[in-house]
Amino acid sequence: MAHKHKFYNGKTLGILTGGGDTPALNSSIEFIRNRAALLGYKVYGIRRGWKGLLGNGDVVDLTNQPYDGYYGGTALLSSRTNPFPTKKNPENRVPQILNNIERYGLDVLISIGGDDTNGAAKRLYETEGIKVIGFPKTIDNDLRTQTIHHYNGKKIEAVLCPGFPSGAKGLMELTAHLRTTAESHSRIIVLEVMGRDAGWLTGSAMMGGAELALVPEYEINKERKDFFLETVKETYMRSRKKNLIIAVAEGVKWYDDVKDKTDYVFASSEVDEFGHPRFGGVSGVIASDITNKLGIEARAQISGYYPRAGKCRSYDRRLTATLADKVVDLLLREDYGQMPVISKIVTFPELEEFNTTSIDMGSIGNKPLPEEYYDIQGFKFTDVYLNFLEHILGKPERLEFKYDFPIVLPKK
Ligand code: F6P
Asked: Helices 282-294 and 222-238: crossing angle, nearest 10°?
């Protein structure tokens, strides 16, 4: 039988997804599964990230099963489980992981995740010799992929992670839609965007027409706050239809006049197993400061899980296929402890295997916005960042009511 001659017949590959979901996770799983199966692997799905390798394990067989890669989220489920001892959970659960890798006969593990999930994978590779290949994922787009953005002869170290293109597209559309309600009420809308410590996702609101933006990379202390409020007033008064959309990252630090302190706004006092707090609510604080100090009506809108929700968009679909091709290369070379990445920022038609490479998982970590991407004085993203986004999202999206009515003066 032909399949007996496949390279990895009799071997098993496990896939897991950890951390916050994205619309491109099922797409990544589907493409990795399909390609690994072509090489002869039996493909197992480990459910709820590293948690699926604890206790008795929670593993499903994905080989030859139907799979819908356009459906967002992850059919393998996700969790923020850290197998290594942490403050929140001091127990070392690595022996349980090793035991289940053996019990389920997993020869290679593909860990789809951000810095936390892949960080744990990297440690298992380094300390226990587990054969892992990392696969990038994060809606925050802050996992260091060493992807170069060529702009006007300059080379900028940027990031491109599956999930971000779909999330950014959704946020661009949401922002464009908010324009109609902002205009109808001559309001300022303060749109809060997830992204934890990084402003990459917040920037995509500018492709949907947001005029100003605040990012976690630059805090708004007492002096900056006065300057920011002046900018808000001026931009609002200059706007033709007296309205404004300000995108603010959930992780921006904002000066509180009452406490005389510049700090984050948290949604809860809980931290996860990787020590991350949960942000939420800074848009409400900023909107009420604008209303109280400038006398302009402002409303907060938390975009929440919207960027993470819904279908995988076409850019992400092709990006995950391209990176899965590189996984095949790594599997064939038996080159573990690596993560496939896109080597340069490209448009949709250029997403091909010759634009991929792989990086050592030891060098991943988090990558904040490059300084070329944000204009600190103007409180907005630069044209350089908009150029980065145009590669991924295409043209900016705007809604516009095209008509203006002539003013009628009373007869008397
Ligand atoms: O890291 C991804 C992310 O979506 C962050 O942008 C956000 O702060 C966090 O996860 C939310 O986590 P949870 O899904 O646990 O509420």
From this structure: 70
217 C-beta closer than 6 A to ligand 1: no
Token output for 383: 């044209």
Question: Is the whole model's pTM more than 0.85, yes or no?
Answer: yes
Pocket test for ligand 1, best of 78, 79, 166, 196 (most atoms within 8 A of CB): 196
Residue nearest to atom 16 of ligand 1 (CA): 278
Which parts of the chain register pLDDT below 70? Answer: 1-4
365: how many CB neighbours lie within 10 A of its CB? 11
Write down all domains in the chain, each with its CATH number in brackets.
Answer: 12-138+312-363 (3.40.50.450), 164-309+370-393 (3.40.50.460)
- Residue of 48, 139, 201, 272 to test ligand 1 pocket, by largest number of atoms within 8 Å of CB: 139
* pLDDT for res 88: 87
Q: Give counts: helices (H), strands (E), the chain.
A: 9, 19
140 is catalytic: yes
Residue 190 is predicted with a pLDDT of 99
Q: Which of 116, 140, 197, 289 is the catalytic position?
A: 140
